[in-house]
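Before a colleague's protein record goes any further, I have to sign it off. Thanks in advance; the entry in question is below:
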Amino acid sequence: MTTHYFIETDFASTQLARQARNELAQQLRAQGLNCHALTLLRATDNVRIFTLEANQPELSLEDKSTKPKRRVMKSRDRLKPQVV
């Protein structure tokens, strides 16, 4: 997972910071990555931080390679010689 931060004070306006995040999200989605965008508020000075988390998509169960399950044989009671 990769996280990108766009701090509004690093841009000329809040709108430009948000736009930069959204453009990067669009580019990463085009590459097949899953993206999740958040807007955070820094508590110390109320500056908005636009975040973008990107990660590889999960493989579906059909795509995952799995080993065949092993069959477990129940042990059978061995025949004991009968004492007569």
Notes: Residues 11 and 36 are 21 Å apart (CA to CA). Residues 14-30 form the longest helix (17 residues). The mean pLDDT is 84. Helices lie at 14-30.
